[in-house]
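Backbones bend. We report:
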Amino acid sequence: MYISMRIFSLSLVVAVCFHFQAFAQDNPTLQLTKVQDSIYMIQGRGGNIAFQAGSEGTLMVDSQFANATPQILNKILSVTTQPLRYLVNTHHHGDHTGGNDNLKGQGAIVIAHDNVRKLLYGEATKLMDKASEEAYNNAMKRLGNETNPENQKLAKQEAEIAAQNIEEEAMKSVKNLPAITFSRDMTFYHNGEKIMAFHVDNAHTQGDIILYFTKANVMHTGDAFINSGYPFIDTNNGGSVDGYIKGLSRIFYVANDDTKIIPGHGELADKDDVQYLHGMLEFLRDRVAYHVVAGKTDAEILQIKEMTAEYDAKGFGDGFISTEKILQVLIADARKKYPTAGKK
């Protein structure tokens, strides 16, 4: 018997493959803040957005979730009616890139690090592979009662074609990819401002960049720095503990005492806030490593409450990354560095 299969669109499926859906709310209130000169910040849904308004058009940093785009554009329109020219992604996570396709429709050219394009494409490919495998397996299951060898052969061919079509459909639905990418650093000259974009290696992810508006003295860090919380170090996508700490060092080396820093999440920050997070991560990394080398088990390390007491008292463990989660990342990092620790 022949198996008929309808080819379905994966656009919605691909959209849900991204991280941080927990940040999305049904009816959030977006908050608009003037940071400095022509630089503004939008908070309230996904990662923090920055935008620069001026006569040459609007440059935007990150796009949050797709369903927030109308509200985001309304906030921008309350400041400027100039067209949207550029959208820069600080990294690939969906709470920072989910609105890319919508903003492309507004005329924005999307720019990001090389690895952002690779990671976005890779996430879609993983989902595509899973969906095509399921399509093939579902088709083959329908052969359970088929005894005619010729029909079995034809059904298998149809299943393979269906899986291939799903792959093609999935790749068409990858609409959030940047049009322009760079490998290391990049400089923009827009609205009379020199804007430096520099890559920080293997920090939050393998595709992180920092945007520094040199004249306004404003920096957008993406999730390479978050304010007042334990950071998410995405080790599955190239992030690392040491890379995150080095990234924080680069941020506060570039910044000065007057620099206003827009974090990936949290309130507007300054250099002291970055240095505090840097010191916290260094301290916790080293203390956890000490206990790992001393032979303590994961469970024993997780019970050492005084190690994180100062930061927990400030509410660091109340966000997306709990105290237990950050300690698990640090323990895994230490065990990778010291694989024979605790072994006789």
